[in-house]
Amino acid sequence: MAKNKKITTVSLILMIFSTIYGFANTTVAFDQMGYASIIWYILAAIFFFLPSGLMFAEYGSSFKEAKGGIYSWLAGSIGEEWAFIGTFIWLSSWIIWMMSTASKVWIPFSTFLFGSDKTQTWSLLGLNSTETVGILGICWILLVTFFAVHGIDSISKVASIGGVLVMILTGVFAIFSIVALFLNGGHLAQPINGISSFIKSPNPEFHSNIALLSFVVYAVFAYAGSESMGGITDKLDKPERTFPRGIIISTIVITFTYSISIFLWGITTNWKSVLGNATTNLGNITYVLMNNLGVYMGHSLHLSAAATTLLGTSLARFAGLSMFMAYLGSFFVLIYSPLKSFILGSNKNFWPKKMTKLNKAGMTSYAMWLQAIIVCVFIFFVSFGGSNAQKFYTILTDMGNISTTFPYLFLVGAFPFFKKKQGLDRPFEIFKNRALTNTVVVLVMVVLIGGIGFSAVQPFLDHDYQTGFWTIGGPIIFGFIAWIFLFQAKRRQAK
What we know:
The chain is an all-alpha fold. It has 21 helices and no strands. The chain has helices spanning 9-20, 23-33, 37-62, 70-78, 80-104, 106-114, 129-149, 158-183, 209-222, 239-268, 271-275, 285-300, 305-334, 337-345, 353-356, 365-383, 389-405, 407-413, 415-420, 434-461, 465-494. The longest helix has 30 residues, at 239-268.
């Protein structure tokens, strides 16, 4: 009987929240835009997260028997070839996530060991710190792939431990911030100077209109992952009521949590004095802010200098441990899960035979090693591109944001074609009016194309061609690789 128990609205809200909300997204938002990021997070929730979540629920309910995930959704809407290209670009977002995380994972590791980010002082065989972190990232990828190929995925269980620690971390941050606000008589470290504080970024890199609009991609990225919820509609209690109610309440809860968290950082962090320096970057921002939270709290409680420093480093170490455990667990799942589900769920004729073969452990070992080589090559070229640590982590963050956002162009763009399809069982349907459907799709597409476009253009306008190339390069390169696979498949079939 327990096996048939249906998911309730409350359970669905908790599932969506744990899938979507990211503590580190709030620190990146505050670093990039300060209080001004709040309005963009609200707009992204209204014009992306809410409508796209309902679209993915319709996809998932109609294709619930298909095993290929978003590939099946796209194939059933716009055909297998476009589905293959779209899903390949989706796969690239995970590959770039691995590339980014393999380099960033050393920052929480260093912070846990030493109390602060020491990676910018590391040097291996005469290499600079960015190149050293790149080499360590390559070693990480190869080691994790080796274990995963042999089916040793038990370490992925630490992901749940990491998740619990991050929840505790979020709670500690909120409590400390509110207590600090009372102890300082309502004084904010980052002052609010009228409405302009919620519109204008304290970060000089986000003062131009194009840079401001490019932040849309950061906001959309903060809500990424709702497509994974699309496949559970058949497990819901009264899905036609439960899912829309769950997605609407989740939108409100997550948007409020993001907004209040960004505001809370301003209680203890003055942007100019804490973040406006060369040693703070998008890789270590979370640990810098947590350390500063402890120091600020120590001063507020009139602790000794030694006790204040200890409180700061203790919070930074706890943040480092939490994020490292979360990264470690996620890595052992994500290094094979997206790749395996795509290869086994898509048309076998599109792949070379070696790519589809499983080893004794049930893993697509050839494809996984090929993936590892691609990730290592990306890490090598970005880390040895001559950039400093600040620029290096900005490139990695921008690449991750763009590559994660890009596949939504396919999923949202295919939705009107999905609605026109005849003969589909549609147990769950929200968008029943064609005119309303097309209007919502156009609005979401404008948000996505605008965000991606402005993010791609901004570095070139600043004459930062290296960041510009890598920012947009991921989806284009992987889209081209997908086209090559299709071209080769057609040649094989012709023979």
